[in-house]
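Q: Joint fold for the lines below.
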Amino acid sequence: MTEGIEEFPEKRGSILIEDVLTRQGHRDIFINSSGIIEAAGEGIGRAFRDDADLRIAGTKFMAIPGLVNTHTHAGMSLMRGYADDLPLQTWLSEKIWPLEALLTGDDVYWGTRLACLEMIRSGTIAFSDMYFFMEDAARAVAESGLKAVLSYGFIDLFDPDRREREMKATEHLVASIRAMGNPKIQPALGPHAVYTVSEESLRWCAGLSAREQIPVHIHLGETGKEISDAVQQRGRRPVQILDDCGILTPRTVAAHCCWLDRGECALLGERGVHVSHNPVSNMKLAVGRAMPYPWLKENGVNVTLGTDGCASNNNLDLFEEMKTAALLQKFSWNSQTLLPASEALSMATAGGARALGLGNGTIAPGEPADIILVDRNAVCNTPLHNPDSNLVYSCSGSAVRTVICHGDILMKDRVIPWQEEVIRGASAAAADLVKRGGGG
Amino acid sequence: MTEGIEEFPEKRGSILIEDVLTRQGHRDIFINSSGIIEAAGEGIGRAFRDDADLRIAGTKFMAIPGLVNTHTHAGMSLMRGYADDLPLQTWLSEKIWPLEALLTGDDVYWGTRLACLEMIRSGTIAFSDMYFFMEDAARAVAESGLKAVLSYGFIDLFDPDRREREMKATEHLVASIRAMGNPKIQPALGPHAVYTVSEESLRWCAGLSAREQIPVHIHLGETGKEISDAVQQRGRRPVQILDDCGILTPRTVAAHCCWLDRGECALLGERGVHVSHNPVSNMKLAVGRAMPYPWLKENGVNVTLGTDGCASNNNLDLFEEMKTAALLQKFSWNSQTLLPASEALSMATAGGARALGLGNGTIAPGEPADIILVDRNAVCNTPLHNPDSNLVYSCSGSAVRTVICHGDILMKDRVIPWQEEVIRGASAAAADLVKRGGGG
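A: Joint structure:
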């Protein structure tokens, strides 16, 4: 368990979930008032019945660990559907970047609130985000009750003046988030990628990360162009550049990793780097290659799942991402057996939790109570021959009924009290943003 | 419009949907008591207000044509999650075929009811099915209110005795369905594939189809092995075999078509064959190649969408299929612009309707009232910059609120009166089937 997460400032009640189907069979689960799973087992509920502030009848549900989204840009949910089906450069330079240049902190606040709403509704309990106006994002996360690791997208474009500004912005975000004192929200460093960040800056990030044990969130090997440009301009592939700068450590989550070669997968394994697989975004943006899961697996790399931002997905449903990961790997490697359902589920739960330092992502005593209850009687779970198969191949996030994040109930029977407020606020912010951009 | 579909035996009321967002802008839609769209346009509702037996306020919804699933095996929904992540031959010969050998008409009835329930909940209003015990399937379809084209899976394995039986079974199904007199349910011929059906039988099917104008539903070019076996054993590729037997006509829907070459795509265009793209199944079963959409498109082939059966998907949500089609084509052909959202939506609506002879799959006067209402205020539609993008890339079938099939309301605000009965019945049938198979 991560230090600090154990002790929550606010008071919460204890919860007993009775007779719920888990991956280990039927269980009672007792969550103490610190948000920690105190006991889990068959028939253990009796001992806690009198202590529990809330009892949830579990017979209609399956309980699984909450899902963890290890790569997103939550604020971009305001751009959902704004620009699709365009050539990559047109999409970026004529649509996304011009709109991003107009973003305000208020936009990012509403975009992040919308993203948090969507993540809760689809069973995600934690995410790692890289974007701008991250103090506003942090405020939105705090209001949602989710856990998040938040990084400012550090982009110096090899310009020393810009580097100074980005370093200050990064330090400022780290300080701001620490000052919030919310144990669910942690700062990270977000050097964007080797093609947008100078080696001086990468080394600075690596040093700060090592000194203060701050996680690093970075894009790596998303397109073939990234690799060939690096080789041509700098004589080294991106993985080598990052390793030379000290970025590859167990504190780092590298997103995409589609174009790694086998030796680079081995190096990531040696360095203990976590990888975030983003199959939907990679397919939609036609990056040309699937993340080499078999090579990462043979090297013991912790592979996790991310949705990427809403402009390149266009949702944040990790159920869909689990399925797409299993399908894309099978299809790309001509193997019906690669990345079976149980592994896809582990990537989205245990893998993600370990990558973000949120415990082991399992339902076991001593773990944070990050638990989602999925409808057993939904059509997608009928029949119920194999829960893992149904969760990965049949269900979408809409099968999630209740979401518990560190003992806090964020959604109960699909009700989130602040939903309508966020739908209205985010719609208005998105319309205004597009209007300022000359559209709409 | 298909002959016969216009005049429904049972009495139904007229419906006025007021002020609903369509792909053509805000509209009122008036559906007459024969289930036909009588008028659709801005502000036309006033004239029909007094006539309408039911008025639906449309401001919270988007109205789109109902989705059409052109390739499935509905009865297999009892096997959802029963066997996954296995090598293809193990999966078929040790899991699926042994269980199918135990199937009863009652099993297929419950499996098809479950499939119909799932299709309605995800916005599908018609489907083309190939399986066994199809009289029982037809009974289930009739109870659901969906439209279907039903074929008996004709498999003679090149054995003359078996051929006789299959011919009789096929004729029997055609007669039974005609005897039902349900204009929503049509018979089709279902020669399974070139590797399971003799040329004598293919010719017999082609003759019967031509004489009586009966549709044909067939698998084609799913795996590379199908192609190489045909070439090796019979000196011709599957498309040539089918063409030699007269199977390739505008009455035929060919499912999968992953391994067609460019010339074969041209031939399908010339013959007017409809193609059913099944990207989720193709990826899950690692068939090694994506259906060549650009080649089919350049030859004017009507490409539609299918989910395949629940054992190889494992759901029947065409929203997911639209997205996966758009992603798989982009990824396979290294193009961010291939198969944009509007085309994916047309494949699932207009394309499917035309393939099954159910009108044009549009919301226009004279068309059958096959309309679904999608929640405009769902998170997946927030913000609403581009409805087509949201429908294809962001929503799952759970965003569908109301389903109207030929003027019959099959689901209203996500309520289907017979849902619980089917969940219970199908669960029991599935458990019993697996028990008889020695499992569970």
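Q: Anything notable?
A: The mean pLDDT of chain B is 95. The domain at 15-65+361-411 of chain B is CATH 2.30.40.10 (Urease, subunit C; domain 1).
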